[in-house]
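User: Please predict the structure of the protein below. I'd like the answer in structure-token form so I can feed it into my own downstream comparison script.

Assistant: Understood. Taking the following sequence of 577 residues as input:
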Amino acid sequence: MIPFSVLVSTFQRLEETSERLKMFEILANLFQQSSVEEIDKIVYFCQGELLPSFHGVEMGMSDKYLIRAIAKGSGALPEQVSVAYQERGDIGSVAERFFGSPETESEISVVGVYEAVYQIAMLVGEGSVEKKMDALARLFSSVSGMEAKYIARFVVGKLRLGVGNATLLEALAASKGERKCRVALNRGYHVTSDLGEVAKTFYQFGIEGIRQLSVKVGSPIQPALCERLSSAEEIIRKIGRCSVEMKYDGLRCQVHKNGSNVILFSRSMERTTPMFPEIVEAIQMFLPNDTLIIEGEVLAFDEASGTLLPFQTTMQRKRKHGIGEKARAYPLKLYAFDLLYHNGVDYTERGYRERRGQLERLVPKNPVIELSQVVETEDSHVVAHVFEAAVEQGLEGIIAKRLDAPYALGSRNFNWIKLKRSYKGALSDSLDLVIVGYNRGHGQRARWGMGTVLAAVYDSVTDRYQTVSKVGTGFSEEALCALKILLDDHLVSEKPKEVDSLMVPDQWVCPKYVISVLADEITRSPNHTAGRGEDGMGYALRFPRVQGFVREDKKARDVTDTSEIIAMFNKQKRVAI
């Protein structure tokens, strides 16, 4: 078993480098030392999570609880620990200060720490917070200061290694000297949404084991994504005859059903089953004998008029408390648009037309589950007509789907193309950006504690978040105050390792919260790092303004990719000519 001190040493080396090739080497070396029994836990540690989010396992601990746990374990006064935290701004550094010397090494293994932290996470019910703090205090007391540093960071979700899933997959392939199997590993992750399971399968059964990983009910599949085009004519030129589907502005939902057991997953792989009871009941009632995975969009609607309600209204249903009251106020419909699995058959490898046909045969007419509206055509005028009809209904636009294309798990390509409402003098589509910092603002906004946020896109090539804009317009006073409360739970004292930024905000934030932003255009800028070339020029948004509030249905790595920004800039440039 690998000692936890070896993992900590690896984390230190990762923190000290920003070179991606060096990260591959460091991680590959760690994985090579690992056994089948521990490789999954090592991967989870590197991801900064106990289990993938779809398991619903959360630590439920904040910095303030860690301060009390450190005080209990070290015998220091809570006030002393609080002062140290205010000075350092990093709960890990505080834990290191109060527990042992850096040179001291414990006997505990990686698996031992993982199991201890897992058991702490499993403590629930009355008095569970105090029990968690007591258990953490005992764990801290049994390890070195350096080990306590990384345990504390892991517990509050601020590991700050700068290591993403793409980097981990690359390192896994390199650890076996099989870089050519990277594509298979990637597919394995998209099928399972569990990088620990992929790593364990790879180490136990090799690449053949990875190829055997398949879609299974209960494990969410990484959703297919869309490319953008700006006209009906471009769509037909690109993919020819296609299925044109209304694009609903709701919450993406992946439904898994096995017998009477129904599980709903969000776009970000979180369980949303208790939040949408009417969807669960409808699946059980109208598809009683089927084992299946279907994908759709959940939207709130007005019962009196039948009209669909705005996204922000639907978001009010994504809650843990007061579900019954909101369900009565804002009932939901599920607009099903794809079939991924049915009674032992994996449909992801089959063409869209076949998947859609089977879905239509499967779902009976009922008041809760509706099929998305589609038209099959090769005429750009028909595509344009469907688009206008979607806009008239208050929908976002359309998605055109290649008829013979398999389901592109976790991938963005031209098998699915979206065309969204355009705004006069603005980009034709909103961008999803992750907040990486904020400035306190001036004048009235200084009283609210926040003026603008620093926002970034994700660069899948470098596995980094690159800044593209400061955003302050579009937030109400209430939204700014609420957003600051959210962000302040994820403050860090220095630039997060995974963030590439020339700008330095008043306060850095762990990349977690996603916002949707509109802008007039994309411009070149020396101030931002998105797509920055050898000339020192990156890409930035002109006159950005936020839409709505935080997109709780999306994770940081779901945001717009740098390559999309560049493609949108080039298309914008052609249109201007």
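That's the full token string. The first strand starts at residue 225 and ends at 228.
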